[in-house]
Amino acid sequence: MKFALVSHKVPPSGTGQSVVIYRMLRELDPQSYCLISTDDHSDKTPSENPSQLLACNYHYLPPPFSFTRGYRFGLQQLRESVNLSLAIIEHSRRIAEIVRRERCEAVVACTGDVTILPAAYLASRLTRVPFYAYVFDHYSYREWDNPVARFWARRLERLLMKGAAGIIAPNEILRDDLQRRFGVEATVIHNSFDMSPYETQEPIRKESAEIRVVYTGAVYEAHFGAFRNLMTAIRKLGRPGINLHLYTNQPDETLERENVRGPIVKHPQESMTEMPRVQMEADILFLPLAFDSPYPDLVRTSATTKLGEYLASQRPVLVHAPRDSFVSWYFRHYECGVVVDEDDPARLAEGIELILSDAELCRRMVANALARARTDFSISLSRAAFARLLKLNGTS
């Protein structure tokens, strides 16, 4: 069966969602799917991550027509509602044209842009093929900063979830939310990865007296408060040589503005091939989510793409995230890391001290983490689950 996957970001763009899509699809026959995106990759000359360019057909959804006037007399929200409706209709027509031309037998649509899911749903109805929702995060909650988009997303979400032939959620917390809110059953497919680089090398033991607390990835509103707590906790410990090593492309001025300062060693974001080495050199891998973010519901169901990598790295993981978040639940439930789920730098300092002082605990947590990585985050198992859901290659 051939399917169309629709997402605002697709490989080779450098977002976490794009990376997950790349990992899921790269072993599939490129004739069995096509990609549709609001990012234009049709020229096949990517400026970033060229190794993640897939061999399938790419299709571009250009910006739809929109009204640019109508700010006066309180008409702005009406204008934005009309523009959103026009975008959904125009995108749905283009998606339907592509589905027919490519002879696709299903449409898989990802969260990320408020127009994508309803446009893909309408296109599936126009072409009479099944619609699958890949819910990387809550469709309506992610529109926290746009009142008009949030208004319509909340009203469309039930229709989209109930009308889907299948739903993919990246974790158990989001799956349970969807079941409770809409009475639908989602298939959990964790944000998986190729474990082989982590299993073909031993954790690196360095001779330096430095204690490396390592974080890899973007740093933004979902993290700032947790990082401030970490820097306070390091100061409270009073141990010499503890440094936070940040592998991120976040500008220094952003970190300064958010008061994330202290013993920080900043590195550029490393490539996927270098990431296992970076993570396996850590004394502690830090997995933060802020307690004071502007979007707590998104934080609660966040399934960061680095989670599986941290589990496989054979290094102790320190989780600092709200108690009801997926990451706190997962590491606490499977006893595969030290979890500090209180917004308290003193408790976080205790967590760091526990990792540094209890070697037996660390060995047990690392063993549990590696077992969970193999069980939940193996890309081969995730691909098989994806194929079963869509009934690809005759699977059932």
How would you describe the overall organization of this protein?
The protein is of the alpha/beta class. The protein folds into 2 domains: 207 residues, Glycogen Phosphorylase B (Rossmann fold); 181 residues, Rossmann fold (3-Layer(aba) Sandwich). Helix content is 42%, strand content 14%. The chain contains 15 helices and 13 strands. The protein has a 7-stranded parallel β-sheet with strand order 3-2-1-4-5-6-7, with helices on both faces. α2 packs across α3 and α7 packs across α13.
Task: Write the SSE topology.
Elements: E1 3-6, H1 16-25, E2 33-37, E3 57-60, H2 76-102, E4 106-110, H3 116-127, E5 131-134, H4 147-162, E6 166-169, H5 172-182, E7 187-188, H6 196-199, E8 211-216, H7 224-237, E9 242-247, H8 252-257, E10 264-267, H9 275-280, E11 284-288, H10 296-300, H11 307-312, E12 317-320, H12 326-333, E13 338-340, H13 345-357, H14 359-376, H15 379-390
Parallel strand pairs: 1-2, 1-4, 2-3, 4-5, 5-6, 6-7, 8-9, 8-11, 9-10, 11-12, 12-13
Helix pairs in contact: 2-3, 2-4, 7-13
What would the keywords be for this entry?
single chain, 396 residues, alpha/beta, Rossmann fold, 2 domains, 7-stranded parallel β-sheet, 6-stranded parallel β-sheet, 13 strands, 42% helix
Uncertain spans, ≥5 residues at pLDDT below 50? none
How does the helix and strand content classify structurally? alpha/beta
Mean pLDDT: 92
CATH topology (level 3) name of the largest domain: Rossmann fold
Distance between the termini: 12 Å
What portion of residues is helical? Answer: 40-55%
Strand order of the largest sheet: 3-2-1-4-5-6-7
Q: What is the count of β-strands?
A: 13
Give the full name of the CATH homologous superfamily of the largest domain: Glycogen Phosphorylase B
CATH class of the largest domain: Alpha Beta
Largest sheet: 7 strands, parallel
Rg, nearest Å:
22 Å
General form: globular
Domain module tally: 2
